[in-house]
Every structure is written in structure tokens, then in C-alpha cells.
């Protein structure tokens, strides 16, 4: 029997629907159930052929447990090694090399010293930083947000340098991005599952959270295909099995705004019934596909960036 597990926190609607959908397909030799961990022993398999990870970004114990599961043959969705190494700033840097439009972005050292460091720990950091150079590059208005954050937490819209310094002083030990504002005509959130299945969803980030998937625009067939191609290219290079990409349309050009969301929102109450049905069905079908094709070796997905770096191939 091949078991498909889901590792999650307080989330309920997607995990429960996902397991029910897998089991309802009655695929011989396949069953879905919650992951339960009662001990963690090095080098021992966990008993699951596939695990959907929805929570390890918040629980370090789960992340390292999943690495052992992957080492012993489990197909973990998403790859816990790459997820541990990735961040939003690197994502933007990579996109500048593969031809995907992104906002002008800089990364900033934390306002407060990290724990167990002193001023002497930063002897390689210029003081003062070239604030004018960064502000001239990004421009105002701009957005400031954590380089490894999510869920619209600690996000600031800034209109002036003075406003930047005021808000940056409140960010503590967070490492922040300062990013060009893309004034958009349309905005889309796009699921990508298995590196091949894409769902383009009109999205209005200026609405209250529960109304963000209620938008009065939709893409033309040409724009839909363009965005699909961009979403597939991003996930091809990053290697995520389950991710969302946010695209802002400015002057007809889709800019990738946020595309490091390996545990994206899939709650029925926020994404809506139609999107929820798509993500449940697609995730269930892909997990079964992974279970049926898994072998005793490495069953993780590795992105083109890592694969090409290992063979010295150019990115483009």
C-alpha cells in the first residue's frame, strides 16, 4: 500500500477535502491520511510515499523531519531542501537572468542587530549605506516587506524617504526588501501544481481579505497564455510542485510580484468554491501521479536553476 500524507497546522478545509478526494478515486494500492509523528529516528523511513507539506515553514521540527523523509524515498511536496534555501530576494534576482519582468528591488540589512552579534560583526557593511542610490533606483512610492515573509505581514507602502526611515525603524531584526510599486491595471494570482497545471485567478489585493478573489476583470486568451507561460517558466526554474505566482499587469506587461508561496492559501472561504474545487482535484491527481511513479531513490523535484548550475549550463 502506498500512502499519501498531508502535514498541516490549523488549516482544515483543504487538507480534509484533499484526503477525501484522493480516497474517493479508489486507485488500487493508494490511500491518503494525515501524517502522524510519534518519534523521529535518523535514517528511518516514515512510511509515506508522498507527503504534501503545508506547515513546515512555521515549524522547524517538521522541516528537518521532512528532509529525513525525503532522504529515505518520500516524494515531499515541496522539496524541503530547496524551500529551506530559497527566499523572495533570490527569486527576483533569478528572474532578472531568465527574462521574467520583476519590480526593481533591493535588500536591506536588519535595522536591529541580530541576536549574538555586535557592531563589529558588520565590519564589511558600509556605513552609511547608499540610501540615495537605492531610493533613486527603486523610486517612490515603494513597498517594504520581509525578504522571507508571507501572508501580507509586515508590509508597508512608503511615499517618501522620511516615511521609509520611520517605518524601517520599526522592523527590528527583520531583513526587508524595498520594492518598486507597480501601478497595475489588473492583478492575478496563479496556482501552479506539478510544474504543468496552472490556474489563473483574477485577484484584487486592494480589497478586504475575504473579497480579494472577487474582481471585475479577466484576461484575454492571449494574455492568459502569456501569463501561463510565465508561471510555468518561474516554477520550472524554482522547482516547486505546489506554488502560487502573483502577476501585476502594467501597460500590458505581467510583472511577477510574489512567487515564493510554497504553502499557498487554499481555504475555501478565501479562494472561493470554483478555485477550491480546482486546487483539490489537481493536487489530489498530482499526488496520486507522484505515488504511482515513485521509486526507492530521490523522488524530489529539483528546479532548473540547480540542475543547470550543477552542469555549468547557462540559465538562458
| Strand tally | 12
For the termini, the CA-CA separation is: 42 Å
Major sheet details: 4 strands, parallel
Q: Residue share in helices? A: 25-40%
Molecular shape? globular
Secondary-structure class? alpha/beta
Query: What is the second-level CATH architecture of the domain at 2-78 and 291-299?
Result: 3-Layer(aba) Sandwich
Ranges where pLDDT stays below 50 over 5 or more residues in a row are none
Task: Briefly summarize what is shown.
With 316 residues, the protein is α/β, with parallel strands linked by helices.
Write a structural description:
By secondary structure, the chain is α/β, with parallel strands linked by helices. Among the domains are: 2-78 and 291-299, 3-Layer(aba) Sandwich (Rossmann fold); 104-180, Dna Ligase, domain 1. The protein has ten helices and twelve strands. Helix 1 (13-24) crosses helix 9.
